[in-house]
Design brief:
Layout lengths: L6 E6 L3 H12 L4 E7 L2 H11 L3 E4 L2 E2 L2 E2 H11 L4 E5 L5 H11 L3 E4 L6 H20 L22 H5 L6 E2 L30 E2 L23 E2 L11 H6 L1 E6 L3 H10 L7 E6 L3 H14 L3 E4 L10 E4 L5 E6 L5 E6 L11 H11 L4 E5 L8 H9 L3 E5 L8 H8 L5 E3 L4 H9 L9
Parallel strand pairs: 1-2, 1-3, 3-6, 6-7, 11-12, 11-17, 12-14, 13-14, 17-18, 18-19
Antiparallel strand pairs: 4-5, 7-9, 8-10, 15-16
Helix pairs in contact: 1-5, 3-4, 10-11, 11-12
């Protein structure tokens, strides 16, 4: 798709109501259009060949077979970004893994047709997912072209729930054109969907052929996903240093893989870590469970009032803000709330960072990672003004440079570093005396 033209979408769903709703939502956007629909896998194959869409939405249940089987076939023969739009199921983790293995870019919930509010809140999420899918399109990098992460995180994220390329994998930066989607409203979703593209469960996108038409603002010849060596962390921290600091992390688009790589380098006695990743409620438990299995430190969903402890990472549950408070017994505790979304996000990185600024001051270490929008920028500035050390992921290692760029722009980030160097820099700072934080 050439810059300035509409994103061409093929909608595949056996439900007439779903096709109508998705088509209405998409066709109402000035930058996209439905070029065709299909009710079966066979029809979808024909439409793909005839219409050559930029992106396809796909239901997983089709009258003549599994949508995931069709997805795997499409990725082998005519790869393109595919957004799985599925009815919520009990075993979402299994569906996420299957969709990822088949090459899906992301999975989002199909709106409940009888629920007007759900239909309305689904519209912005769907459209932002389609735009992010379009931006994810990359050339093929071999037979096993599933990379470290797609262009989302988008929020977000199936990559982390269903497995990933591992802590040594990282994605190259999306190009500067992504800035057009990085404003505060660009990726905002209703609280019922967890906010931002992190609410979409992203899957590492299978590459497209080098001859495929370029997507808007995304060069066809973007560099392939690559393994990035991980910088060795400094020596283990003393018990006093581990107790004296708290690390707070915010991420969205592309965040699940970035968070995994970051946590994989944390020693067992690292300072306590609190994380806000834009992600829907359905995926947060599986995300935490997966990280707990794959990294050395303990990882779990935060519960209200639990103490912040060294060697443990607490993740904000979907649709709940995570913050910090001082404990009467000493140290700090996590707090959860269902307060209104901030910047249309719940959980919001700004809520966590603002609390770290107030409660921890120079004892806090803030890290903002890949993601669309500006959530966390104001909070990181407040942290820096309170004396905290703050880091932003650099553009080259971000999937989307929106959130770090905004934090840098307002002066919130003291240092900017590649993802593979962030753990070492954070730990090196944690080992320093509190007075060592720069102005």
């Amino acid at each position: 798709m050439k810059s300035g033209t509409r994103l061409r979408v093929l909608v595949v769903d056996d439900s007439a109501l779903a096709r109508q709703l998705l088509s209405t939502i998409i066709n109402a956007q000035p930058d996209m259009e439905v070029v065709g629909t299909a009710t079966t896998a066979a029809t979808a194959r024909d439409r793909l060949q005839a219409l050559r869409p930029d992106v396809m939405t796909l239901d997983i249940n089709l009258p003549d077979g599994s949508g995931l089987d069709l997805l795997a076939e499409v990725m082998a023969r005519q790869p393109l970004p595919v957004l799985v739009v599925a009815t919520p199921v009990t075993d979402r983790d299994a569906v996420v893994r299957q969709a990822r293995a088949s090459g899906a870019f992301a999975l989002i919930d199909k709106p409940r047709m009888a629920d007007a509010q759900d239909r309305q809140s689904a519209a912005p999420l769907l459209c932002r997912a389609l735009r992010a899918a379009a931006l994810s399109r990359r050339p093929a990098v071999g037979a096993s072209a599933v990379g470290a992460t797609g262009a989302m995180g988008a929020a977000a994220a199936m990559a982390a729930v269903g497995g990933g390329a591992g802590p040594a994998a990282a994605a190259p930066a999306a190009n500067a054109g992504l800035g057009a989607l990085s404003s505060g409203s660009a990726m905002a979703a209703g609280a019922s969907h967890g906010a931002d593209m992190g609410s979409v469960a992203p899957v590492p996108a299978t590459g497209t052929s080098a001859g495929a038409a370029p997507m808007a603002n995304a060069p066809v010849l973007a560099p392939p996903l690559r393994a990035v060596p991980v910088a060795p962390p400094p020596a283990p921290l003393s018990a006093a240093a581990s107790q004296a600091r708290v690390i707070v992390v915010g991420a969205s688009t592309g965040g699940p893989e970035a968070i995994e790589q970051f946590l994989a380098q944390m020693p067992l006695n690292c300072p306590g870590i609190l994380i806000v990743q834009h992600m829907p409620v359905y995926f947060t438990q599986a995300f935490a469970d997966r990280l707990n299995r794959t990294v050395a430190i303990a990882v779990r969903l935060a519960t209200d009032g639990e103490p912040v402890q060294p060697g443990t990472a607490l993740i904000a549950p979907g649709d709940q803000h995570l913050a910090l408070r001082s404990s009467s017994q000493g140290g700090w505790r996590a707090t959860l709330s269902s307060a209104p979304p901030l910047n249309r996000h719940r959980p919001a990185v700004d809520v966590l960072f603002d609390s770290a600024a107030r409660v921890l001051g120079p004892r806090a270490i803030g890290v903002i990672m890949t993601g669309m929008g500006k959530d966390g920028a104001a909070g990181m500035l407040a942290m820096r003004q309170a004396g905290a050390m703050t880091f932003a992921q650099d553009e080259a290692s971000c999937v989307v440079f929106g959130m770090p760029r905004e934090a840098i722009a307002v002066g919130g980030a003291r240092e900017v570093a590649p993802l593979n160097q962030l753990p070492g820099r954070v730990l090196a700072h944690a080992a320093q005396p509190l007075a060592a934080t720069p102005a």
